[in-house]
Design goal:
The complex is a heterodimer of chains A (332) and B (337). By secondary structure, chain A is of the alpha/beta class. Chain A contains 13 helices and 13 strands. In chain A, a hairpin with a 2-residue loop joins strand 12 and strand 13. At the A-B interface, helix 8, strand 3, helix 9, helix 10 and helix 11 of A face helix 7, strand 5, helix 8, helix 9 and strand 10 of B.
Chain lengths: 332, 337
């Protein structure tokens, strides 16, 4: 039986994995931290659990500032958690946490499935699709298209730094999908063979700009040049409500030399050259043909409309810091 | 017994040089070009006889023989044409004088080729201004020469160098530019558009340049130039003129080599993922409209003027090109020095 202190110790490791992209998919990132919270709520005393939330959440968020799904999850969870504390006390709120998280997670899964299903319809017979990075939603989308009997092939970029495209390629080929791996540099060279480009997203800003793994914006540019359609799959929980109020989505730039320089060259180069490896980039809305959400396909410029439909206008956004303060006050 | 080629005995040394080029013992655009020119000088030196007409016929035959060593080596026909064209125009009255002319022309080409990179550096550096931030891709001695010269003049301090997967030639460039005293920032290929906003000039090399001014260079070059165009960053290609491809004048396409998957992934990974194809093209083609200028040792030219270089500087005639063997894939080895 793990101890409550173990889960505190784990905060650092999870933050590091989030920061360095070992946990790469943004949905995956959100599910991971929710799982940590679920675990903590089960093994920690209620007061300890509140302490856990107060310490872990700001760390997770700063480790992965681009993952809006993580932010929106946490916001939803903390809102309900505070409500429960106010209604029935901290003990009850902690006890009901696993059920609450299960509920949010199943909702996310439903949304993910709806997005994948809608997107799969855009993969037609004879298509040659290009995808970048790793996304469980995209893999699901392609699996649905394949299971519906459509005949298509997929090009996958290596997706450096990190190189998670290799995981994507491996998984797709094991689903029986014809898969070709290329280096990131070859995207413009192969673009003439591609019929559709699909991306996932870490975040979608209010103007329809998409934050995703670095390389996305270059591919979208090459696709635009070649008049190849570009789709972004993103449930509405990835929409950046704060960006309506002008907030920028922060990116992470790593500078670990070993991300680029192979071991045998490290001695001769490290310290002499600077390594800069951004993990995310921003693709402008004009390079995106449609964003595929659980509500259907929308133009990137229609993001504010969807935000209005779901959250009202202007959307009521509760600051996570304020929520944490309230949790701390209610628990006192 | 010396080799007989179309009725003429080819000296052993010439055969040796041609074999060296053919079997890729001699590699790199510049080295192949210089070897080709020197082969003609060797052939001239060993000529015995006093019939001037026969001597010229012999040199023409040798030229054809040398040129056929590697149909895809772009610099080889150019070097041969450089010598032959000047020879055809030269005035001399004896075989002895003819031999001297061939010797002088071959030496002239060799020196010219060796100086080209330095001249390109000087010309290219003039195109850069104080405070420029440069981005480059792959490794090119000509491009490094431009950036390093501009640094010496105090114009450029920062260079973004792309890693250049799969073979990571960016590391060679990073070393060379760091040695030259620049602040080098090594970035992944995927981040090209991300960093383009911080860049003011793109300088890349070329493996070959076609008659319409399209630049064939390490895969990823066309992505860099597209991102530069989008950001209105000027793009310069640094290349010696013997990299201009005569074959493209007659409509020949430049087919591109596709290399081993193991340059990208490990053997082990391939075995574990038999369903994944790995596609590894070596070069890509950048259209002339994405290039602001090509910096050659002959001057800075718009890419569309590439044809001028081929016809004027090398005096290449379409009949020359047709007489050489055609076809074959542009290979990485023959271009790298």
């Amino acid at each position: 039986m793990p101890e409550c202190s173990n889960i505190f110790d784990n905060i650092e490791k999870i933050s590091k994995d989030l920061r360095e992209g070992n946990i790469l998919g943004s949905t995956e990132a959100a599910l991971t931290i929710m799982n940590e919270c679920r675990k903590a709520s089960k093994i920690c005393e209620p007061r300890k659990y509140v302490k856990y939330l107060l310490r872990a959440i700001p760390q997770f968020l700063s480790a992965r500032p681009t993952s809006l799904i993580m932010k929106n999850f946490i916001r939803e969870y903390l809102t309900r958690f505070t409500e429960t504390i106010n209604e029935s006390g901290i003990k009850e709120a902690t006890k009901s946490t696993p059920a609450l998280i299960d509920f949010i997670q199943s909702k996310v899964n439903e949304i993910k499935n709806a997005v994948a299903l809608a997107g799969s319809k855009r993969v037609v017979d004879g298509a040659t699709v290009l995808i970048h990075s790793y996304s469980t939603t995209l893999i699901k989308l392609l699996k649905i298209a394949r299971d519906s009997g459509r005949d298509f092939q997929v090009y996958v970029t290596e997706s450096r730094p990190i190189g998670e495209g290799m995981v994507t390629a491996s998984q797709l080929s094991k689903l029986g999908i014809e898969t070709t791996l290329i280096v990131d540099s070859a995207v413009r060279y192969v673009m003439k063979r591609i019929t559709d480009v699909f991306f996932s997203a870490d975040a979608v800003a209010a103007n329809g700009a998409v934050v995703n793994k670095v390389g996305t914006s270059a591919i979208a540019l090459a696709a635009k040049e070649a008049r190849v359609r570009t789709y972004v799959v993103a449930g509405t929980y990835k929409f950046g409500l704060e960006t309506v109020f002008g907030e920028l989505v922060e990116g992470v730039v790593l500078s670990k030399a070993s991300l680029i320089i192979p071991d045998q060259e490290l001695n001769s180069l490290a310290g002499r050259v600077l390594v800069r490896a951004p993990i995310f980039d921003v693709t402008p809305p004009e390079y995106i043909d449609a964003i595929i959400t659980e509500l259907g396909l929308i133009a990137p410029q229609a993001v504010p409309l969807v935000i209005k439909e779901i959250f009202g206008w202007p959307p009521k956004v509760i600051n996570i810091e304020d929520l944490l303060k309230e949790v701390s006050k209610s628990a006192a | 017994m010396p080799l007989n080629y179309r009725g003429y005995a080819i000296p052993d040394k010439v055969v040796e040089i041609r074999e060296g080029i053919r079997t890729m013992k001699i590699r790199g655009a510049g080295k192949i070009a210089r070897a080709g020119a020197l082969a003609l000088a060797e052939a001239a030196k060993t000529y015995r006889g006093s019939d001037l007409k026969n001597f010229l016929k012999y040199i023409e035959i040798v030229a054809e023989y040398v040129r056929s060593a590697r149909p895809t080596a772009v610099s080889l026909p150019n070097a041969v044409a450089y010598v032959m064209n000047r020879l055809r125009r030269a005035k001399f009255s004896s075989v002895q004088e003819g031999i001297e002319v061939v010797n002088e022309l071959a030496d002239e080409f060799v020196e010219y080729s060796l100086n080209a990179v330095k001249i390109i550096g000087d010309l290219g550096a003039k195109r850069l201004v104080n405070g420029d931030v440069v981005m480059t891709h792959c490794h090119s001695t000509a491009a490094v020469s431009v950036i390093a010269t501009a640094h010496k003049m105090g114009k450029v301090n920062i260079a973004y160098v792309k890693e250049t997967r799969p073979k990571m030639q960016g590391l060679i460039t990073a070393k060379a530019l760091a040695d030259a005293g620049l602040d080098v920032i090594l970035v992944p290929d995927s981040s090209v558009r991300y960093f383009m906003k911080k860049v003011t000039k793109v300088v890349v090399g070329a493996d070959t340049i076609s008659a319409n001014g399209a630049v064939i260079n390490k895969v990823g070059t066309s992505m860099v130039t597209l991102a530069a165009k989008e950001a209105r960053v000027r793009t310069y290609v640094a290349a010696e003129t013997y990299k201009f491809s005569p074959r493209t004048v007659i409509g020949e396409l430049v087919p591109i080599e596709v290399r081993e998957p193991t340059e990208i992934v490990s053997e082990k990974w391939l075995k574990e993922n038999p369903g994944v194809k790995v596609y590894n093209p070596v070069f890509d083609v950048t259209p002339p409209e994405y290039i602001d200028a090509i910096i050659t040792e002959k001057g800075v030219i718009p890419p569309q003027a590439a044809i001028l270089i081929l016809l004027e500087e090398y005096g290449i005639k379409i009949s020359d090109i047709l007489s050489g063997e055609l076809g074959g894939v542009l290979k990485d080895e023959e271009l790298r020095e």
